[in-house]
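Hi team,

Below is the intake form for Aminopeptidase P family protein from Streptomyces anulatus. Please confirm the fields before the structure is written into the shared record.

FORM ID: S-0412
PROTEIN: Aminopeptidase P family protein
ORGANISM: Streptomyces anulatus
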Amino acid sequence: MSEVHAVRRGLLRDRCAAAGSAAALVSRPANVRYLAGGAPPGAVLLLGPGEDVLLCPRAPTGEPTHGRPDEALRIDLLPVPDGDPVVAAAGLAASAGADSLAVEEHDLTVARHRAMGKAAPRLRLADLGFTVEQQRIVKDEAEIGCLRIAAEITDQALGELLESILVGRTERHLALELERRLVDHGADGPAFATSVATGPNSGQGRHRPSDRRVEEGDFLSVRLGASYHGYRCEIGRTFVIGTAPAEWQIELYDLVFAAQRAGREALAPGAAYRDVDRAARHPLESAGHGEGLQPRTGHGVGLEIEEDPQLAPTAMGKLDACVPVTVEPGVHLPGRGGVRIDDTLVVRPEADGGPELLTMTTKELLAL
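The structure came back. Fields below:
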């Protein structure tokens, strides 16, 4: 992977040079990992002038959650562990002859930005903006391979839970068990905090697992994902517990299923972000559920669980091939229950079979 990371750094260096910056400082952890292979806690990456350097408060341990830095990359340890690597990087860039340094202002506090200016007063600080985040949107096949494994792990964990006895267990216990199963099957850890919502709690759009126990007739709404080599996927499913679904549950589920299918089918290279959102949102609005819908239908995934692109009504831009996204419409009826169906897919052209579904757990309305 050393060559891959070197190519990524080279692309960023070229973009910075075109914008008039001789060097760039990357501090957002996911961006550091993308360019350096690993992001030890507190590490920042200095690109040029001359040699690229990963500045670390402490020696990298190679833990899976942080990744393993590119062996070809120079690593500098700060002489004082509690020193600030961004300040050290500014001084290093200035001493190497740089007159300007592009920084991720959206990741830096005002205090750190000022400290950099004091450490290297002759160094002009420019805003790198979201250049690295934009570079990360289209994934290579190695990245997609990691996402595919993360999805397989997630499907395994969820499938095993569905085979167990659920009635009488608490939401909190089920969430903890799912996260344990993710690790047991090879995940670095959960991609985000697992959500389990039962009965009326499934009628809340954002619910944290509570001590409510699963009861017969409940909707059980689960949302989870694995992180594998830093790459994060997401799945959401809704089931009925212990009995045949009620008529209103079937109708609500079928409606959300149709919306989710429409969103998935709209995924194609060149499709506008807002058009994908509209495809999934329209059936729900037509059925009278427009007011309580989430502000977006989906989003990109990768080294972070929520990345660009955003599949939302006002989002600007069009999809490219090899962009992994979620499609996750839902309808939540406060005090009664709700349905959410969530998949991770990779945008592919029609000639390659259309969107690649990574999360394979059945979307039937099962009675568990």
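SUMMARY LINE: The longest helix spans residues 141-162.

Thanks, M.
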